[in-house]
Amino acid sequence: ITAALAITAALALPSTASAAAHKSHGKTRTASRSNAKVQAETAEAMAASKVAILEFRGDGTEEIRAQVIKVLRPKVRELPTNLRAPDTVVQYRDMGAALGLALYVHGHLKDVGKDQSTLTIDLRSAVSGQKITSVKFTGSRRKLYADAEDELWSRIEKPFGRACLDASRAVRHHSAPMRIEAGSPIEDAHRSSL
Fold first, then answer.
1. CA–CA separation, 33 vs 39, rounded Å?
2. Which of 61, 68, 137, 138 minimizes the C-alpha distance to 103?
3. pLDDT, tens only, 76-130
C-alpha cells in the first residue's frame, strides 16, 4: 500500500507542477495584456491632450524653449505656448480646468560657472496644479540644446504619459469667477425715479 501511494504521489507531482507552471504563465500573459492596454490608453490620452508650454526663466532661454516645443509638439494634440504662468496651485488647477489642459511644462536656465549652465524642466499637473517631476541637465549651452532635443523625451515620457492619462479620466472642478452684487446700477435707479 505504501509503495502504491508513493507511485501515485510521484505521478501526481509532475501534473501539479505542470498546472502551476501553466497558471503562472497565464498570469504573465494576463499581466502583459493589461500592461499593453495601459500603454495603449496612455498613448491615446497623450495624442488627445492639450499641454501648455509656459515661460522659461533665465537669460537666453528662447532657443532651449524652442527645442522643448519641437520635442513635444508631435506627442500631443495641442501645444499652446502663449499662456502666462499662474501664481498659485489653485490658479494652475483652475486654468487647467477652464482650458482643458492636461499638463504644464516650464523651465529655468541658470548659469553655474564658466561656460556651464543648468537647465531644469518641470512638469506640473493641470488637474491638481501640483508639480509632478523635474528633470535637470547640466553642461555648456550648446550641450543643453542637444540634450533638450535628444534626451528630454526619454526622461519625461512616463510621468508625462501618466499625467495625460490621469487628466483624461479626471472629473474637473474649478472655482467660479467671483461676482459682487452691489445693488441696483445707478443709471437704472435714476431712470425709474423719473
1. 10
2. 68
3. 999 999 999 999 999 999 999 999 999 999 999 999 888 899 999 999 999 999 9
- DSSP conformation letters of 76-138: SSB----PPPPSSHHHHHHHHHHHT--EEEEEEEEEEETTEEEEEEEEEETTT--EEEEEEEE
User: Stretch 134-161: mean pLDDT, rounded?
Assistant: 92
Sign for the pseudo-dihedral over CA of 79, 132, 137, 75? negative
What distance in Å separates the CA atoms of residue 108 and residue 13, rounded to the nearest whole number?
63
First to last CA, the chain: 117
β partners of residue 116: 113
DSSP code per residue over 149-194: HHTHHHHHHHHHHHHHHHHHH-----PPPP----SS-HHHHHHHH-
Q: What is the DSSP letter of 23?
A: H
- The CA distance from 176 to 2, in Å, is 81
The three-point CA angle 82-83-85 to 5° equals 135
Contacts of 95 (CB under 8 A, 6+ apart): 83, 86, 101, 126
pTM value is 0.71
